[in-house]
Amino acid sequence: MKFIISTFIICLSYFSLSAQDILMQDGNFDQCSGMFFDSGGVTGDYATGENFTLTICPDGPNLQTVLEFSAFILANDGEDQMTIYDADNPDPATILGTFSGTLAGNPELDIIAATNANPSGCLTIVFESNTFFNASGWEAAISCRPPCQTITPEVADISPVCSVDTNGQQFVEANQPITFVGNAVTSSGVTNDLTYEWNFQGTILTGQSVDQTFNNPGTVDASLTVTDSFGCSETLDFSVFVGEQTIIVDDNQFTLDELVNQVLISGTCSIVDNIVSPLSADASNAGFDSYGYFNKGCSAFPFEEGIVLASEGVSGIPTGIPSENPFGPGDPDLSALGGGNTNDATVIEFDFTPFVDQIQFNYMFASDEYNFPSLSFVCSFADTFAFILSGPGISNTNDYDHDANPATPDLTLDLGGLNIALVPGTNVPVSAVNVHTNNSCGAGTLGEFAFPQFFDSANVPPPDHKYDGQMRVLTAQADVIPGQVYHIKLAISDFSDSILNSAVFLEGGSFELGANVGNDLTIEEVTAACEGEVRTLEVFNGVAPAGFTFQWTQDGVPIPGETGPTLDISETGEYCIELQAGTDCDSSDCVQVEFVPVFDESEDITDNLDIILCLPFNEPASFNLTLNDVFILDNIRNTFFNDFPDYQTENPGVEPYQVTYYETAQDAIDGTNPISTPNNFTPTPQNFPFTVHYAVEDTIGLECLGTGSFELDVTTSSIGILENLELCSDVPGTDTATFDLTQNDANVLNGEDPNNFDVFYYESQQDAIDGTNPIPNPAAYQNISNPQTIWAKQDNLQSTACFNVDSFQIEVFQTPEITIPPEDLTVCGDFTLTQTFDLTQNDEAALGI
């Protein structure tokens, strides 16, 4: 910051400026370093009555001047001011800003720079002060930067989201943390120096990912500013829609034409004409609308979005406010269906040309006639609606069971078409009197007979809107001829009165007219196919209408010979059908199909999976089957990741396959009776070799299954014939001796590799079995009894459970001891110096007799 020096120094001295520092004056400077001060320099104030124009330009080509103010104080009288121009002259059209007061009140001065629109890269500063007061002025660092790159911010993700409307608006829930993730594309391609600042109506958060909670429903104005290391930034303004726990109804967002074409109808090659609303609140000049757009918002309503027709103004449907009714006359077709007068009818009609052989759409009826808990109104007030379809193959005159009473005859009505809003499986028109749960309506009343199974008893009253009750979701459908023109009339009205009202909700996009290959078959949607399967894609239920031509493509390349309405596929790709019907339809529909690799033992197993163990001593053999997991899964998982390289990034730590072990091949195929403890499996009975079967299945939920098997076996080893050891006693007359037990090592090993087996000796069988108290020095063992049994153990080094035990004897024989001194023997010599002695004369002495 700029410091004001107030200490007096007796010796006169002057402050010094760097050769690169600039004081405010009239002039032009070309430099990209140094400091820019007011006319008072580092320590002084600017003067009164100043009027200077100073231009600072870069000292090289393709650069822009940057000023970063660290101090800024102008006299607060409203007349001292600095104006900065984005040019090499004070052109009024290039003003970046006019500043006075303090730095805190002018955050733009933290960093202010020439823009890309300024070819000179210069900044021009004009400073004016009045003749009365001055102040300490300013201090700013001078630098240059390359021209700002293009930065394109985007809100990459918002989660969790309640719903998304037709325009892509995302609704989030109040009082719940919402995560916003930003991103940006830069012209330089460098993004690791970017900073992100979020502004939610004054709440500032920083970071590429932030969490924000909104307390109240409504629209929140927000922005994301992305700035690079040069201070270049770009701001994206967006809105956050915080949804209610009720549906959202809007009668202004879409025109009638848009409601039909953009919201209700889906499918390529759909042709819709002559959209009109002859009866409605708007047609009656009521000052409100009785049809409009709805979105589920953050409610639990079964439809994401759609259009709603009501016998009242639609603005009050979410909460009952405002109450907008009555507004106009009824509809004669609805009066005929209900058997009485109707009021406040809303009708939407249009012509359409389907390119499917069956039309259908989903709808739900809600009404105030469901007056819980009594439900008395449903006995008499037949608030009704109809979807009347006319065209080729459709009869104008049809029979309807208007009251669901088996004792009354059907009504034969000419409605100019067929009402397809019927109770499923019947010719009963859907209305409040025909779908309810009141079994107490009197004999002869309209509501005496009804279909309670189609009433939404789980939501009474419904939490998503103001009506007292609603039906379950139903589907209207009819067979049509592709390429022919049909007409449909959507109508609803009050019956008999205008007090209690009703509405019918039509699911957006469910009225499908265009050719549709179907939904994507992908891993993400858990609809992908398994490798080896054949999937059939089709339009028009596989039957080509007259006048249509077809061409299938895979990944944009036409498939030779595939010019019909069906296509059998067996490999991953994007498949499209291009169809044409004269000049009315020339369009296409595409579907992404993924085939997930299926485990194949012959291709995916390269290792010997057989597990061979030594047979434990006096115990059943147990095996850890999971040792084979990695060998079974390695190749198939690598194949999967090669086919779908993004899966690991999108699902970190998730393995695409799992292996399960079984005792029979059929169990492996059926997925029944898996081995519960594969890490400690004991075959029963212990008949070897034993075959273990396994199944490899995807973890996605596609049931892509492959099986295989391997063998379990045991090896046995035995101890050879052990030699008994005999020694004379170490001390004459005793029963002890020092034995070298290792003389039996070779017999104990019995040909086994000493690198895999060890030999131990024990004084008891139990010690040998338990592996405790081995004889520490078997090469010099002194017996403790005579004779004595020694236990030898052949121990498998790879498994302490595998060993053999056998025994041999050691025995000590006493060393003789002469106790009576033998007598000396003498004989007379014959001068030959050789004589004969009878040594046996000392036998008795030697034997101690």
Shape: flat
% residues in beta strands: 35-45%
Question: Ends: how far apart?
Answer: 126 Å
Q: Can you give the mean pLDDT? A: 90
Parts with pLDDT < 50 across at least 5 consecutive residues: 1-17
- Give me the count of strands: 53
Strand count, sense and closure of the main sheet? 7 strands, antiparallel
In short:
This protein is mainly beta and 849 residues long. Helices cover 7% and strands 36% of the residues.
Could you describe the 3D structure shown?
The chain folds into seven domains: 22-145, Jelly Rolls (Sandwich), CATH 2.60.120.290; 152-243, Sandwich (Immunoglobulin-like); 248-512, no CATH class; 529-596, Immunoglobulins (Immunoglobulin-like); 601-715, no CATH class; 725-813; 818-849, no CATH class. It is flat. The protein is mainly β and 849 residues long. The longest helix is centred in the C-terminal third of the chain and has 15 residues, at 629-643. It has nine helices and 53 strands. The N and C termini lie far apart (126 Å). Strand 15 and strand 16 (203-206) form a beta hairpin. Mean pLDDT is 90; it is low at 1-17. Strands 20, 23, 24, 26, 31, 32 and 34 form a seven-stranded antiparallel sheet that branches.
Task: Give the SSE layout.
Blueprint: E1 22-23, E2 27-30, E3 35-37, E4 51-57, E5 64-73, E6 81-85, E7 95-99, E8 112-113, E9 123-128, E10 137-145, E11 151-159, E12 163-164, E13 170-173, E14 178-186, E15 195-200, E16 203-206, E17 209-212, E18 218-227, E19 233-243, E20 248-250, H1 256-264, E21 265-266, E22 271-279, E23 291-295, E24 305-310, H2 332-338, E25 342-353, E26 358-367, E27 384-390, E28 397-400, E29 411-414, E30 418-419, E31 469-470, E32 474-479, E33 486-495, E34 502-507, E35 511-512, E36 529-530, E37 535-538, E38 548-554, E39 557-558, E40 566-569, E41 573-581, E42 585-593, E43 595-596, H3 601-604, E44 611-614, H4 629-643, H5 647-650, E45 657-662, H6 665-670, E46 690-698, E47 705-715, E48 725-728, E49 738-739, H7 745-749, E50 757-762, H8 765-770, E51 781-782, E52 788-796, E53 803-813, H9 843-846
Parallel strand pairs: 1-3, 2-4, 13-19, 21-35, 36-43, 44-47, 48-53
Antiparallel strand pairs: 3-10, 4-9, 5-8, 5-10, 6-7, 6-9, 11-14, 12-13, 14-17, 15-16, 15-18, 18-19, 20-23, 22-25, 23-24, 24-34, 25-33, 26-31, 26-32, 26-34, 27-30, 27-33, 28-29, 37-40, 38-39, 38-41, 41-42, 45-46, 46-47, 49-51, 50-52, 52-53
